[in-house]
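Narrative of activities, Objective 1.

The group set out to show that a structural description can be obtained from nothing but a protein's sequence at a throughput compatible with the screening campaign. Below is one input-output pair from the validation batch, recorded exactly as produced.
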Amino acid sequence: MKEQLIKQKLINILKNDFEIIEKISGTHYTGKQVKPDFAFRLPSDKRLFIVEIKDDTAINFNLTELIRQTINYKSATYDGVIPTFAFFTTYNLLKGISLPIENAKMLGLAAKLGVGQIHSKIDYDQSLIRIGIGNIFLFTYNILTCESALNFTDLKSENIGTKAASNRLSNNIEPV
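Output recorded for this entry:
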């Protein structure tokens, strides 16, 4: 039940800046049908962003499984479109509770595969919902002022998922 509540709250936040696709299904490259919770896109272009939500207060919650599922959703096509990024979120991420530090390597790998998080940042002077991948934030929504900021125009994939220059993704890959 928390997942539906989270979904509706996120849609209400995103609907002013994005086109929302509440019911979406796709086909994974293995042929399996997938159904993420919802998707969104900028009205001005065709890039597709997938969202998967889980209740991390449930007894059977497994973060690794959530990330695996979100990676699978990123690896699917939706009416012939491959998503630019896929994002996951949980009840506690949206309450401002960070994931344990031992998950950092797994989150870095997920970012390299195009999977990021939707989470809250709650400080004494601000309360933000942020959509990010690695250390890049693509969308920020201030809960107190109801203002949003977009940063979807200049995605630098070489910086996603790591701060180490030797591990960065590169667009300059030479054929072997």
